[in-house]
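S.,

As promised, the magnesium ion run. Input:
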Amino acid sequence: MPSFSSSTRDIPQVKAVPRHIAIIMDGNGRWAKQRMLPRAAGHKRGVEIVREVVKACAARGVEYLTLFAFSSENWRRPAEEVSLLKQLFILALEREAEKLHRNGIILRVVGNLAPFGNKITELVARAEQLTRDNKGMTLTIAANYGGRWDLLQAMQCLIESQPQRHGAFTEEQLASCLAMAYAPEPDLFIRTGGEQRISNFLLWQLAYSEFYFTDTLWPDFDAAALDQAISSYQRRERRFGRTSEQVEVAAKAPPKKRELA
Ligand code: IPE
Ligand code: IPE
Ligand code: MG
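Predicted complex:
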């Protein structure tokens, strides 16, 4: 497992193109409502947009793209909507895994999958297995995911892995037990659909991410909208607790040996 620099323990290297983009894809229901269509139509169009955004991110050199597809609180929705979302997930796994594989993409799914049942668990295992050795972008789908669930399961894993422990746990130990330990922290967090909240997404990893909120509804979020989010990101100064002057000095300094490796 690669180890990534932590935004609170080190100063991560900042690149022009965000290495990791995490997106809350919100607004499918409202998109459908505006068109007098059933919510299902919004979710279907939402899946099509996922394809476009995955392609655009890979083309721009994004290394990790993480999409929030179903939160641990989305079970509160009407049973028919939950069932439709499960069906769409199954269809997407069946139809897209091979295509992702041909495009060199690594697919990962994070979240508590058991409540979705065997079919989804098996399809996910198969798609992850098929794409695991690819060399392209890592696409993560968060399904029945919650930031609090993730922190709790990480604590559980920590305690179980070191039952005889004396002294405190470290940040690195906890981070290595999170569901997405294989990815660096998101550089850019995007939420479509106008709401400005995290809705229990990646609570630990968003510590120093740049936030971008847009009123654009997810089914309208195309490659051009993605580019706007990336240019907004490129205009930010990521200070990680330092002063602006320190950031400027650090930008002029030659990279440290560790970063050259
Ligand atoms: C996001 O769109 C998709 C999921 C949460 C699964 P919504 O379904 O939340 O759409 P709005 O927020 O009702 O418009
Ligand atoms: C967040 O959207 C979860 C996903 C996009 C999967 P919601 O629509 O569920 O969020 P809230 O309920 O408005 O916070
Ligand atoms: Mg919503």
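The mean pLDDT is 95. The first strand starts at residue 20 and ends at 24.

- D.
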